[in-house]
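Sanity check

After download, print the first record. It should look like this:
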Amino acid sequence: MQSSERTNTEGKPVSNIILLSLSDSDYGSLRPHLEYVSLPDHLVLHQAGGKLEFAYFPNRGLISLVVVMKDGQTAEAGIVGHEGFTGALAAVGLSRSPLEAVVQIRGDGFRVEVGNLQNTLESTPHLLQRLSRYIAIRGMQVAQTAACNRLHGIEQRLARWLLMAQDRVDAESLAITHDFLATMLGTDRPSVSSAASILQGRKLIQYTRGAVKIVDRKNLEKSACECYGVTQLYNPELGLN
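Expected structure tokens:
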């Protein structure tokens, strides 16, 4: 079975990078547990502080990992696309996550019951290595995002986020609103609208109601802060190195 032709037992094609990177033996052990799922907009995959029931491996779409405060305010800590998976803490034996995982751009993928994933990991060293590596990479992404949100201006942060999102969605146009971007970037809608207007004025993006299109990626990268380059340096799964 060639990795480029991988499917689950229902015949649904696999395009998640982690699943495609596994050895045939390890993938064969996990394959019976891969349940194909649609990932519609705003679907909450894990509640903050809730029990982890499934790990999700997206084929397409974008998932935000969100910190939720007691008063309901939220801020994004990281994003997951076809390069990764959610429910990462379950892979190292933890049953709960402090982060909420919510679908921000619809897609599809596979889910695995946490118990089945943990049982499979006992006999699949390559799978365990791949998941552990991704957990470490995402930890660096979360740390860099925290520093970025504290130290850099909204225009740079917006450029960084759009680039990271496009890397994972692999599309010119991103189906997102300014309200959503404000929540994810930990700011208000007028600030996001102002930053988006500046980037559009430079002909780097085009935005309409509910969508942002990247039209000049090269120069958008120049408008982003150093955090974009740092996060990509440690993320070869995206094929950008």
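If your output differs, re-run the checksum step. Summary of this record's structure: Residues 3-148 form a domain with the Jelly Rolls fold (CATH 2.60.120.10).
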